[in-house]
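request received
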Amino acid sequence: MSGIIGRKIGMTSVFNADGESVPVTVIEAGPCRIVNVRTVEKDGYNALQLGFGSKKVSRVNKPLAGQFKKITCPFRLC
Amino acid sequence: MLREFKFPEVAEFTVGTELKADIFSEGERIKVRSKSKGKGFQGVMKRHGFGGVGGTTHGQSDRLRAPGSIGASSYPSRVFKGQRMAGRKGFENVTISNLQVIKIFLDENLILIKGAVPGAINSIVELIKK
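response:
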């Protein structure tokens, strides 16, 4: 169930080894920075909280900014 | 943008490090979750696949795309909750399973996925390992 956050760029087509055209969606996938680690001992389940993209400092509200306290690059959310 | 993903094993991860597209491999089948395109206020034929009411003869008019009856009369004297009617369509979470990863460009952080993915261009998608 692990995963990553991305952004849809658009669609195009590529050719595979057999020369067939394959319709594909292009997705910008990551890089995602690990913002928080949830563990069974602390939270009851294992998960990673991931951040993706960036935001102007003046646009970040306090609850969201608090999530990034542990990280050195607080407001570049990637 | 913050999202949480369940990972079976988290001991090896520390806060602040980056995850990249290399958690997937080419040819792998994954799930993709995203918000579908918003379609605005739509009638029951487009929204729920209703068939519309009857034809245009015998004096009938303006009923081609109508929902028909929405319930019985004296009993229950009300419309049941959840009755499908016209309203906002789209912009809901949609998950597509079993999409194949065709190619990964790790240095450009791009993934090519076979077929269509829900949502408009620039919308946020979650790529979920099975």
